[in-house]
Amino acid sequence: MLIKNKTLAHLAAAIFAAGSLTLSAAFAQDATTTVVEQTITTTVVETEAAAPEAAEPTVEQRLADIEAYFNNVDRPSGDASKIKVPGPGHNAWQMTSTALVLFMTLPGLALFYGGLVRSKNVLSILAMTMGVAGLVTILWWAVGYSLTFSGGNAFIGDLAQRFFTGMSPGAVGAGYYWISDYMWAMFQLSFAIITPALIFGATAERMKFSAVLLFTAIWMFVVYFPLAHMVWAVNGFMCGPLNADAGIKAIDFAGGTVVHMSSGWSALVLCIILGPRLGFGKQPMAPHSMVLCMVGTGMLFVGWFGFNAGSALGSDALSSNAFTTTLLAAATGGFVWGMIEWVLRGKPSVLGFCSGIVSGLVTITPGAGFVTPTSAVIMGALAGIIPFFAVVYLKKMFGYDDALDTFGVHGVGGTLGAILTGIFADPAANGVLSSMNLMDGLLLNQIKACVLTIVLSVVATTIIAYIVKFTIGLRASDEVQSAGLDTEEHGEEGYLLEK
C-alpha cells in the first residue's frame, strides 16, 4: 500500500509540474487580456445609453441569412440577424461527427489494438483507452480547450476560457458560423482523446498503466495543446487557411500533423526508450484475435468519416469532398497493401488489409478537404506501399519494438500525407487555397510543418519519457510481463474459458 501511495504522489506531483510552465505563461497572458476586457467593458457601459438600438433586419436581409445557412457561410445581416443560433442541419452533422470520432477510440481503437496483442494483455489495452479518454476529457475542460483555441500568441493560447468560461450551447462562431460553440469544443475533444491513445500501440504489453497516465498528462501540455493551437487556431503559427500572418503557411484539414505525426513520432521515441517486450524476437507474439482487429478496423473506417468530413464544420460540398476522398483513399490503401503481401509473401492477410485501410485513412487525413478524388486514389495507393515497407522492413532493419506499428502507420503515413497534400492540393477542392494565396510555396511549407512537428514530438517525448522513468518508472517488471498485464495491473482476465 505504501508503494502505491508513493506512486500516486509522484504521479500527482509530476502532473502539476508538467503544466506549471505552460499555465504560468498563459495566466500572464490572461491577466493582460482581463485588464483590456475590463477597460472595454467600462467604455461600453458608459456609452450604452447613448447607443442607438440595432435596426431590424429587412425581409431581404432575413432571406439572405437563410441562404447563408444553406451555403454554410456567415450571416449577411451580422449582429442584427434573427438566427444567431446553431443551424439545425450543420450542427446535427457536427454532433454526429463528434460521436463518430469518439466511436473511433471507444470501441474502435480499443478493439483494433486489443485484437493485436496477446490474450493476457487485451484488457490492458481497453483500460488504456478508457483511462486516457477520461484523463484527457478532464484536462480539456479545465484548461486544454482554452490553451488550444483561446487567444494567446502564435504558439499557445491563454486561459480566458478555462473551465469553458464564457461559452454557451446557443453561441456560435468559435468553430464556424452555424455550429454550437459547445459542439466545436466537443468535436476537438474527440481528437484530443484519440491522439495520445494511438501512441501506446507502440508500447503495448510492457508499459505500466500509471506511466501511461502520467506520460499522457505531461504530453498533452507540452505537445498536443501547443501543436493543435499552431495548426488550427486563428492566430496559429502554422495555420495557413486562417492566419494571413502565419510563420509557416501550411494546411492540415483534419490532423495529419496534429494527430498522426505527433503520435507516430512520439511512439517511435517512447518504444525505443522503453525497450522491447520480454522475449521480443525470441518467441512468437502473434495477434490473439484477428476477428477483433478486423471489427475494430471497420469501426475506425466508419468513424473516420466523422474525423475527416466532420472537419468541414458543416454539412456542405466541402464535407462531401472530404467524405469521398476518405473512402477512396482508405479502400485503395487496403487493397494495395493486401496485393503487395500476396506478391511478396504468397498470401494476402487480414492483418495486411486492416493495416492498409488504416494507413490510407491516415494518409488522406491532412488533405481530405484539399484534394480531388483522383488524387485521393493516388494517395491511397502510396499509403499501401510506403508504410508497408516501413512496417515490414524498416522496423526489422533497426530492431525497435513498435508493437502494433504505430510509427509505421501513423508516423510514416501521417508524414507522407502531409507532404502529398502539398503536391495534390487543388483550389477546385477548396477555395481557401486561392483566397489565402496558399498555393505558392505550399510544398515547402508542408515540409517545414513536418520538420517542426517531428522536432517538437521527438524532443518533448524524450524529455517526458525520462521524467516518467526516473519518477514512477515506465516499464512493467519481467514477472508482470510474463503473467500478463491484465491480471497483474488490473486484476482481471479478458477470457474466462473452461478448461
Mean pLDDT: 91
CATH class label of the largest domain:
Mainly Alpha
Structural class of the secondary elements?
Answer: mainly alpha
- The CATH architecture of the largest domain would be Orthogonal Bundle
Helix amount, in percent? 55-70%
Unreliable spans are 1-9, 12-18, 21-51
User: Which overall shape is indicated by the principal axes computed on the Cα atoms?
Assistant: globular
How many strand elements?
A: 0
Relative strand content: under 5%
The third-level CATH topology of the largest domain is Ammonium transporter fold
Q: H/E series, N to C?
A: HHHHHHHHHHHHHHHH
CATH superfamily caption of the largest domain? Ammonium transporter AmtB like domains
Q: How large is the radius of gyration?
A: 23 Å
- How many distinct helices? 16
Cα-to-Cα separation, first versus last residue: 34 Å
Largest sheet: none
The number of distinct structural domains comes to: 2
Structural account:
The structure is a single chain. By secondary structure, the protein is mostly helical. It folds into two domains: 2-19 and 89-490, Ammonium transporter AmtB like domains (Ammonium transporter fold); 54-84, no CATH class. The protein has 16 helices and no strands. Helix 6 packs antiparallel against helix 14, helix 8 (290-308) packs antiparallel against helix 9 (317-345) and helix 9 (317-345) packs across helix 11 (373-398). It is globular and about 75 Å long. The relative contact order is 0.13.
Write the layout of secondary structure elements.
Elements: H1 2-48, H2 59-71, H3 88-116, H4 122-149, H5 181-199, H6 209-232, H7 256-274, H8 290-308, H9 317-345, H10 350-364, H11 373-398, H12 406-424, H13 432-435, H14 442-471, H15 478-483, H16 485-490
Helix pairs in contact: 1-6, 3-4, 3-5, 3-8, 4-5, 4-6, 5-7, 6-7, 6-14, 7-12, 7-14, 8-9, 8-10, 9-10, 9-11, 10-11, 10-12, 11-12, 12-14
